[in-house]
């Protein structure tokens, strides 16, 4: 996985959790 993909996933997860 590229750093961009990982960042996007983490951000999306954070938004969904919030």
Fold and architecture overview:
This protein has 18 residues and is an all-alpha fold. It has one helix spanning 3-17. The longest helix is centred in the middle third of the chain and has 15 residues, at 3-17. The termini are far apart. It contains one helix and no strands.
List keywords for this structure.
single chain, 18 residues, mainly alpha, rod-shaped
**Strand fraction band?**
under 5%
Distance between the termini: 24 Å
Total beta strands: 0
SSE arrangement, N to C: H
**Counting H and I runs of at least 4 residues, what is the number of helices?**
1
Radius of gyration: 8 Å
- Average pLDDT confidence is 89
Low-confidence runs: none
Given the helix and strand composition, which structural class is it? mainly alpha
Q: Estimate the helix proportion, in percent.
A: over 70%
Shape: rod-shaped
- What can be said about the biggest beta sheet? none
Can you summarize this structure?
By secondary structure, this protein is an all-alpha fold. 83% of the residues lie in helices and 0% in strands. The chain contains one helix and no strands.
List the helices and strands and how they pair.
Elements lengths: L2 H15 L1
């Amino acid at each position: 996985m590229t750093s961009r993909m990982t960042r996007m996933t983490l951000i999306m997860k954070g938004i969904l959790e919030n």
